[in-house]
Write a structure and sequence with these properties.
alpha+beta; 7 helices; 60% helix; 17% strand
């Protein structure tokens, strides 16, 4: 009886510590969510990009080259390239070697930049910009989907953009849905189709050719 009691007493402090840690972790997560919700991160990313674009247009310097520079500075640091690339390669990702993974990360990065340049370039005049967040944020653990309603020059038909986000130390974007099209899902479908018809090596060769065109 005494031996059993001693064992129980020895376990209690451990269980208490685990319970305290769990409460602290839950409290910490609640504070993090309060300070840095995905909706605020998504809004900040888009406001920063469109404010800079508005300034470029105001100075009549909104060339493709300058919009690309803006994208690299304002948007690229907020993209979770590893996640985007893994989703795009889907079931083929785990079988790639290190060099192939590095190449596709670079390819997706450069391709996404061109996609974002295309999105930003689609905004013509930016006399006034109003961005609001749909309060119905879809959230599951460390992932979230945030819908942004973007109204340019009081247009009665605002643009709707959905940012798919994931949280590491901060919230980052791993996909964007624009005009009903998921950019990363589109890459995945293209890659799957090409690999099935040919091979990974052929896809890499084709992707390298595209990168050369982008660089021109």
């Amino acid at each position: 009886m005494i031996k059993t009691l001693l064992i129980v007493l020895s376990i209690l402090p451990i269980n208490s510590t685990l319970a305290i840690d769990k409460v602290l972790n839950t409290t910490h997560q609640a504070i993090v969510d309060m300070i840095d919700p995905p909706s605020s991160a998504a809004l900040n990313i888009m406001v920063s990009a469109l404010t800079s674009l508005k300034e470029l247009k105001k100075q009549k310097r909104a060339t493709k080259k300058n919009i690309e520079a803006l994208t690299r500075l304002k948007i690229l640091p907020n993209i979770a390239i590893n996640v985007s690339t893994k989703i795009a390669l889907n079931k083929y990702w785990d079988n790639l070697n290190i060099q192939q993974k590095q190449f596709f990360k670079y390819y997706i990065s450069e391709s996404l930049i061109q996609d974002y340049v295309g999105i930003l370039s689609s905004y013509d005049k930016l006399n006034s910009v109003h961005i609001s967040v749909d309060p119905n944020v879809k959230r599951k653990n460390d992932k979230a989907i945030v819908r942004l309603i973007i109204n340019i020059n009081n247009d009665p038909k605002p643009s709707i953009i959905s940012l798919k986000m994931i949280r590491f130390n901060t919230w980052r974007v791993y996909d964007i849905v624009f005009s009903g099209i998921s950019i990363v899902k589109n890459y995945r479908e293209q890659f799957n189709s090409y690999i099935k018809r040919k091979s990974i090596d052929d896809l890499i060769r084709k992707s390298k050719q595209k990168l050369k065109k982008i660089a021109k």
